[in-house]
Design goal:
The complex is a heterotrimer of chains A (505), B (487) and C (99). By secondary structure, chain A is of the alpha+beta class. Chain A is built from 19 helices and 15 strands. The model of chain A is unreliable at 1-7, 122-135 and 383-387 (pLDDT under 50). By secondary structure, chain B is an alpha/beta fold. Chain C is an alpha+beta fold. Chain C has a domain at 7-42. Chain C has a two-stranded antiparallel sheet with strand order 2-3. Classes of the chains: A alpha+beta (505), B alpha/beta (487), C alpha+beta (99). Chains in contact: A-B, A-C, B-C. The interface between B and C is large, with 71 and 51 residues. β15 (299-301) of chain A pairs parallel with β1 (59-61) of chain C, so a sheet runs across the interface. Bound molecules: zinc ion. Zinc ion binds next to loops of chain A.
Amino acid sequence: MNNIKKMGPELKIGLEIHCQLTNLQTKLFCDCLSNYRNSPPNENTCPICLGLPGTLPLLNKRAVEFASMICMAFNCNIPEEISFYRKNYFYPDLPKNYQTTQYNSYELSSIGYEGSIEFVGDSKSKTDASKDSKQRGRIRIARVQLEEDPGKITYEEDKSAANNYSLIDYNRAGVSLVEIVTEPDFSSPIAVRGFLNEIVNLFEYLGVTDPSLEGSVRCDVNVSVGGGKKVEIKNISSFKEVEKSIYYEITRQKTLIMHEIDVKPETRHWDEKRKVTIAARSKEEEEEYRYFPEPDIPRIILGGKFVSRVKTLMPELPIERLQRYIEVYKITEHTAKILVNDKRISDFFEESLRYHKSPIEISNWIVNELLTKINEKDRQGLTDHNTRGLDILSVSPSQVAEIAKLVEVKALNRTIAREIFDKSIETGTSPLKIIENLEIEKISDEASIIKIIQDILISQPQLPEQSRNNPNVINYVLGLIMKETRGRVNPQIALKLIKQMIESN
Amino acid sequence: MKSLYELPAFVVSRKIKEQEITAEEYISIIIERIKKVDDKINSFISHNFESALIRSRAIDKKIKEGINTGLLAGIPVGIKDNISVKGLKNTCASRMLAEYVSPYNATVVSKIEEQGGIIIGKLNMDEFGMGTTSEYSSHGPVRNPWNLDYVAGGSSGGSAAAVASSQIPLSLGSDTGGSIRCPSSFCSVIGIKPTYGSVSRNGLISYSNSLEQIGPIARTIYDLVPLLNTISGDDPKDNTTVHKKYEYQTNNVDNILKKKYRIGVLNELIDDSETEVGKNTRKKVKQLENYGCEVEDTRIPLSNYALASYYVIATAEASSNLSRYDNLRYGYEGSPEGYEWNSYFSESRSKFGDEVKLRILLGSYVLSAGYYGKYYAKAQKIRSMIKREFDILFNKYDILLLPTMPVLPFKLGEKTLQPIEHYNLDVYTILANLAGIPAISIPGGLSEKGFPIGVQLIANAFNEQKLIDAGVLLENVDGFETWIPKI
Amino acid sequence: MAKGIDIIKLCNMTKLEIPEQNIPEISRKVEEVLLMFDKLDEFTTEDSTVPSIEDLKFEMAFENLRDDEPRPTVESSEGPQLKFKLKNIKDGFILGPRI
Ligand SMILES: [Zn+2]
């Protein structure tokens, strides 16, 4: 939060987020696979997406549906009719040398407009609980539009100057993209990072994309400092880099202002290796996109009932789920947020509840034990950014449910339960199985157990007296025994002996 | 006795089905005719003779086995070189596409083959359909069968000339601003531009998508109708098509007369034409009046804005449509190795002809920043106004009558220097494209020096039947199917 | 406004190479046609019911759009899918110019 103050209130950041609709079967305008990632180069193509002469675009119905689900999640208006425009520019990755997209300057053509989204804030850091409420804000959405992805250009040699030619693969060309354009409502790079994490999660809830696929969610940024001209940054490969590029751009613009040099409105590219932004093209060049209505796609009539129909397709959104966890499950807001902020973890939680319906206990196990473990792994660098923590631990929802149940019925005290749970998630063995195996080496001879109980009663002589009014004392003693023996005592035998000894005392 | 190549297709097809002759015999005769005549006319860009013969044998076999062979059994159809035929070169008469072979069939081509039609070759045209004379072709100009020093009209010049010179009975052209009707008029054949959306454009290489349609060309209305029936109808591969409600008929004269057609005559446009064209057009009015049609003079007030509106829209769409030709994925010989991309694109695209370049420049200019409202939006507005004027006229009239072309055919090279003079040739034909309504050019007679004059009829959207009916009337009074150039 | 258009800029934008000696002629032609386009400026109307651009645009109901189904791998009735031969292939990639 210091950052915001340091930079002054006039820092304005806006985003253009591109989300591939990877969960579609086919591309936006042809029946090639949406999943281009497993095909040899140029195999996932057809006359339409190669832009062969005479081919016409055939709009994917489900792409319109997915895009409108995104619109709804961003509380956008959805018009009754939408249409498409051509954005004309030459580039070797564009099979037709124009991109079919939507454009609102001449008419309202895009699938969504004028939305806003409550931005919950990052709860993953437990160190600063106070920042939640401060960061919570509303981000306005200018528009949401549906468009096609271009192909990919690569080189054989790393340094582009060393290459005499490029290599083009059009497998990605024509894959559905949804572009979400925000108003410049962010005032810090950290807020941007938090927001991006949240909306990636949102896309996952919506079931429109798999964010773990490389390049499925991308982001361009525009930054203006002190009410100055807007500079766009493109070519940013990951969200971490988004944050860095904004920091760089702020410094660059501030330096210019300090030296009384005008900040030019332009597009700059993020050079990931050198960590700087580089001028790419001026605004003037950009305005020559020669937009005009795509004559080959009719105006699409969504109709009055469309919105209510899409509503029925909408899955539970994170914000709704959060509400439910707090209100129905009585989970604390803090814990609930941690669960909800990662759909896979939240789904894991829901699945665990099917085995044992004790939301508070289970949520604690997940948040305090499981996630701590995952974070440790993260720090050890055992997970790369694309695979989620849950995958590297061989843990199933039923394991969590079992352990929670054992603790709740007091068959285990927490310390032992934690140890068993640790073993369980490392090995994937169910907690009950682990207990059974432990049984073999357990202290089951009554003499040794009696010895331990005696020691306890000597050091805490008030216990027998207290147990008359408070049945929990027996469990307390069992806990002490378990602690002493690191859980190696057979709990049933121990319990029997504790009762006998306290009563006879 | 007439040779088979002179006969109407519907007559020959009956003979084939009745096994009086074989499709193979017929196709062989057609191939001979093309080989003999087309050196003079230059209507074909490429031939498909071998496959055509194979197909003809397959049709003969089907007929022998009593299997249904369709509306066009054994009939050769020539295809304009901007309509995709699988496995054939598809050059659009452009050096940009000199080596491009289409991997798929246009929907109209598939439909023709389903009806037993045989694709005989690809026909010459103005490059990408941009021209009114068929002179702007990488394959050289098409010559008018009535006089080889004269233009055949365009851009579907090859389609009209090949039919007029009795090389083939039927062809497909495409009509963006008159490209079927103009050469039909100049060559004395019958050609129709159907209602926008009634024929699939899938596989038609776009010049101006919102204006153009594929349509048939024939020597007689009785051949035109089966081909029109074959190609029309909605297509899941073209989202701008609409469902066809009925099949077109060639009704007999008595039944047509019962319909008491009301004909609006676009008087001013007749007056603005060359004298002989005007005279001939009035003769057509008289003939229809003699049939008992109601005839009345009328006008389209906004027609003087049509040319600017048309060329703004056509060039704008063209500039974008032709962007894809960069010689990376397909095109002609040549490799981008060693080039920086901007210079590769610019050098590759220098293979476009001058007229195409001119239209790309114009179209890009009218779409560029700040000019959209002045040109494109304005042109579209006028376009909708013209459509409205037609709507009003069609409340009063079934058919509008005007010349197809304001002039008689002229000499090769006469009108290629001044773009405006060239574009002005389109003033009567572009109206139907702007409004998306059907229009037909019907042979109307010959000038004193023996040049064809066409008459144009326009009807409301999806009222092709009225145009066909009028075609039947005019063919019956004139017998124009017998006007054949000596070649 | 037809006078004085920047033909070089237009050529760069459209990626068209026009030999230097042809520039004057093509400029003249472009200007001549743009002058004809200026006819549109004469068109004014006070008629408030003048239809907008959208009047002529085709419409399609959402329900009729293409279903999200991959194409069947079995060969169609049209015979085997003709594998399109792309130009200048290297290891499956299309050879491109330097960027
Ligand atoms: Zn495809």
